[in-house]
C-alpha cells in the first residue's frame, strides 16, 4: 500500500457495520443509567409523611432526595420549625448515602450499627450528614435497588419523625418498582 493511501469504506457499509446487532453487542456502552422515583411519586411520598405527622399533631417537613443526593421533593407543614427544612434534607441524604454504603434502612439503624463514625465525630462534620432518627432509605420493591432517601423533621423527637416516614414509605412500597 502506498504511504499516503487511505482505506475508504462506502458510507452504506460503514453505517451497516455500526448498526449491525453483532457490532452493537460487542461495543461497550458508555452510558450509565440509574433508577429513581418520578417527581410525582416523590412529592406524594413527602406529602404523605407530612399528612401522617399532622394527623398526630406534628407539623413537619419531609424531603425526598434522589440518587444524586439532591432534593427531589420537599413538603413543609403549615407551622414547621425553621430548622426542619435543612434537617429533613440532611436526614434524607444520610439515609440514602449511608443506607447505600452500609445496607441499612433508616438513620436509626445506622446509629444502632455504630455507623456514625469515629469517636471524634468526623462523619458529622460533612455538611449534609446528620445521624439523627427520621431518615428512611428508599428501595425498589422488586430488587431492593436504592432509589433515594426520605427525611422527616419537626416532630418532638426523631423517633416520631421516623415513624411518619416509615408509614409513608410502607404505603407507597408497592409502586416502588
List the helices and strands and how they pair.
Elements: H1 11-19, H2 21-26, H3 39-55, E1 61-65, E2 71-76, H4 84-102, H5 107-112, E3 135-139, E4 146-153, H6 158-172
Antiparallel strand pairs: 1-2, 1-4, 3-4
Helix pairs in contact: 3-6
What's a concise summary of this model?
This protein is of the alpha+beta class and 177 residues long.
What do these coordinates show?
- About 3% of the residues have low confidence.
- Helix 3 crosses helix 6.
- The longest helix has 19 residues.
- The chain is an alpha+beta fold and 177 residues long.
- A four-stranded antiparallel beta sheet has the order 2-1-4-3.
Proportion of residues in helical segments? 40-55%
Distance between the termini: 58 Å
**Low-confidence parts:** 13-18
* Biggest β-sheet description: 4 strands, antiparallel
H/I helix tally? 6
Q: Numbering strands along the chain, what is their spatial order in the largest sheet?
A: 2-1-4-3
List the helices and strands in order.
Answer: HHHEEHHEEH
Mean pLDDT: 86
Percent strand equals 5-15%
Structural class: alpha+beta
What is the strand tally? 4
Query: Gyration radius, to the nearest Å?
Result: 23 Å
Shape: globular
Amino acid at each position: 500500500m502506498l504511504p499516503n493511501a487511505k482505506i475508504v469504506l462506502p458510507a452504506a457499509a460503514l453505517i451497516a457495520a455500526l448498526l449491525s446487532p453483532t457490532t452493537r453487542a460487542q461495543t461497550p456502552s458508555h452510558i450509565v443509567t440509574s433508577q429513581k422515583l418520578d417527581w410525582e411519586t416523590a412529592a406524594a411520598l413527602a406529602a404523605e409523611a407530612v399528612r401522617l405527622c399532622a394527623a398526630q399533631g406534628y407539623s413537619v417537613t419531609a424531603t425526598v432526595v434522589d440518587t444524586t443526593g439532591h432534593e427531589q421533593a420537599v413538603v413543609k407543614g403549615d407551622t414547621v420549625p425553621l430548622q426542619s427544612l435543612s434537617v429533613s434534607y440532611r436526614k434524607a441524604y444520610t439515609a440514602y448515602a449511608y443506607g447505600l454504603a452500609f445496607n441499612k434502612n433508616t438513620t436509626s439503624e445506622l446509629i444502632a450499627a455504630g455507623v456514625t463514625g469515629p469517636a471524634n465525630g468526623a462523619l458529622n462534620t460533612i455538611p449534609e450528614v446528620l445521624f439523627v432518627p427520621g431518615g428512611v432509605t428508599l428501595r425498589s420493591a422488586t430488587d431492593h435497588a436504592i432509589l433515594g432517601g426520605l427525611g422527616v423533621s419537626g416532630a418532638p423527637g426523631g423517633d416520631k419523625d421516623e415513624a411518619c416516614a416509615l408509614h409513608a414509605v410502607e404505603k407507597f412500597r408497592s409502586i416502588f418498582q
